[in-house]
Amino acid sequence: MRQRILIMAASMISRLAPHAESEALVGDLLEEYALRAAADSHSVALRWYLRQILMSGLNLLWTRITQTAWISTFAVALLAYTSVGVAEFAIRRSLPNSPVTTMIATFPAVVGIAYLAGGLRRRAPVVLATLMLLAVTLMTLTANENLSLGYQIAYFLVGPSAVLLGGGLRLAANRKSN
User: Environment class of residue 17 by beta-carbon count within 10 Å: exposed (0-12), middle (13-18) or buried (19+)?
Assistant: First the structure.
């Protein structure tokens, strides 16, 4: 049973650790376990080993999570989506209540927000456009308003187009500066 626990714990650490370092990390832990088991008892050594596995595993997992690009890309896209909502709210409060006017006035703000998001994370505008399409789809399916088909199509096209335009402008600016 003890051998099985050692193998399972070593397997977990080897999956979390970077490939180049996993063999050395597992080997060092097993070597120290053997030294402790010879000096003390197997149960004391096993408790030490499992504590080391737990602490190392948590650190390795945290490193993996924080180094994964999709989390930060999604966070930037979510922040940009919130910024678009705030901009749209401000525009609706300051202009006449017309969907066309709101779309026209919001378009440059969305382009700018997507441009900034693309500067933080290269793929953030694509994620933002996807979030916008999902939101527009959900709102269209659940809305009680009777908007014309033209308005509905415009909502599907204008927001994501503005985002992709802003992201494209950022990519072009990045290529130009390199």
Answer: buried
SS3 label, residue 66: helix
Alpha-helical (H) ranges within 68-142 are 69-94, 99-120, 124-142
> 25-54 pLDDT, tens per residue?
889 988 999 999 999 888 888 889 888 888
pLDDT, one tens digit per residue, over 68-100 is 778 888 999 999 999 999 998 999 899 877 777
| Residues in contact with 47: Cβ distance below 8 Å, sequence separation at least 6, in sequence order | none
Q: In this predicted structure, which of 51-55, 104-108, 115-119, 140-144 has the lowest mean pLDDT?
A: 140-144
CA 161/CA 128 separation, integer angstroms: 11
| Extents of the domains making up the chain | 2-67, 69-177
